Amino acid sequence: HFQCRKDDTHLVGLSQKCDGIYDCLDLSDECNNDCGRRIVLGGEYLTPICWTIGVLGILLNCTTLVLVGSSLKKCRNENILFSKVLVMLISAGDFILGTYLITLSVYDGLVYKDKFCSDQARWLSGTECAVLGLLSTIGSQLSLFSMTVLSVFRLLKVVINTLPLQVSRKSIIRTVFWACIVIFLSIAIAAIPLIPADGLEDYFVQGIYYENHYRLFVGLNSKQKHVRIIQEYVNKTADPVVIPEKPSWVEIGRMVDQMFSHSPDRDSVQIVRNKVHFYGNDGLCLFKYIVLSDDARRTRQGGDVLLDNDPVVWAILGLNLVCFVFILLSATIICVKTRRSAERTGQKRNKATRKRNRDLEMRIVVIVATDFICWVPFIIICFLHNQEVVDVSGWYHAIALIILPLNSLINPLIYDKTITSFCQNKAKKIAENVDWSAIEAIRDRVNSNTRSSKAFSRQSSNLTGDSPKSKNQADSNC
């Protein structure tokens, strides 16, 4: 048997130790020297990476927001205005993702440190985790949707090939309309799982965590666990508790209250219960793409509940895959159209045109490659994991904190030239203010001193007889 740390009288079987399901009130059967997640991020090597990506993401995207936003008033072209607004939305999404990473790192290194395991149930059912899940989902979806709309918009402009319109009231309204649609969809996808409505909670709430440590309800309690415990209680007490075939969370709460209604300390002790929300599937508080070992829906009686038939998760994964396909097709068609246009107009031999087309193709390749690396392998991995083909639990944290946020660092540099142009202009001004003649004089002086030093060394060697020639003569005299 395994003895729970804070309760000498509570013993659990060795097979129940480190199986991903809490049995001890203090959670020590899953938080001990043999198992247990010590930190929020899931690995010490992820801490500096998370800080680095988060800080750089905030700095780069904040710079893009300021520079691009300050240039909106100068837009005289509807196409340029629409593109800049979407670039700002991309940067806003990546900025939110950087904020998520920094906040998660603060909780990891300053709040919990290496004591996360014992507080994991409270974290997964807490408000902080829900807010972080909301931020991460809004950031990633806002960036992806904006990139998709921008790619399709640029494609339409290349295919239709109409003259750009001047900025007008109607063009501003159209731009704001599309921006609002992108923002609304991103917020809706992130917020719907957290709406406290009975029908939605029955689908998205994964379990209940009881703060007062009732012996009957340990750790994260799923519906199946509630039904099993209530059924055992009814069989022992003959209390007239009616258990529905598929109870809702409201009905489960009513039955739990009825179980404790005859307790002598019922009036002095309040049952404090926290819902394990949709983002409480893991310490990273991300969208529930896969089920890990500490998921609230895992039960020993029912086995592991996987998401292979979860329509919401598959709908979002499919939507993200469709967005990538649109980005890929748009980029490919733009490249083909641009090259054919250069051949048709005779600009293919023009060096400036060839350079401009090469730069465009290179940017498109980088855009498609980064989106592919960040999303397509992740979607495939989620599919294989949920179909029980492979187990990616050990890779999940690295993928979520390294690969997925890569776009937040690259997007500000490839979707708009504002940052690169700003850096080039600053470097040019610095170069213009540098006194190159003084630098040349210093370099000549250094070279002159070097030549003088070498000449002095040769003269000294000749006087002391240490030169190779003198040494050979001395050997022959001997």
Structure description:
This protein is 62% helix and 3% strand. The protein is mostly helical. The strands form two sheets. The chain has a three-stranded antiparallel sheet. The protein has a two-stranded antiparallel sheet with strand order 1-2. The longest helix is centred in the last third of the chain and has 36 residues.
Task: Please tag this protein with its features.
3% strand, 478 residues, 15 helices, three-stranded antiparallel β-sheet, single chain, mainly alpha, 62% helix, two-stranded antiparallel ribbon, disordered C terminus, globular
Summarize the structure in short.
The protein contains 15 helices and 5 strands. It is an all-alpha fold.
The H/E string reads EEHHHHHHEEHHEHHHHHHH
Which shape, going by the Cα principal axes? globular
Largest sheet data: 3 strands, antiparallel
User: Level of helix content?
Assistant: 55-70%
| Number of beta-strand segments | 5
What fraction strand? Answer: under 5%
Distance between the termini: 91 Å
Instruction: Tell me, rounded to a whole number, the average pLDDT.
Output: 76
Structural class: mainly alpha
Q: Specify the number of helices.
A: 15
Lay out the secondary structure.
Blueprint: E1 2-3, E2 11-12, H1 46-70, H2 78-112, H3 120-124, H4 127-160, H5 169-191, H6 198-204, E3 207-210, E4 220-221, H7 223-237, H8 249-259, E5 273-276, H9 311-344, H10 351-386, H11 396-403, H12 406-414, H13 418-433, H14 436-464, H15 468-477
Antiparallel strand pairs: 1-2, 3-4, 3-5
Helix pairs in contact: 1-2, 1-11, 1-12, 2-4, 2-5, 2-12, 4-5, 4-9, 7-8, 9-10, 10-12
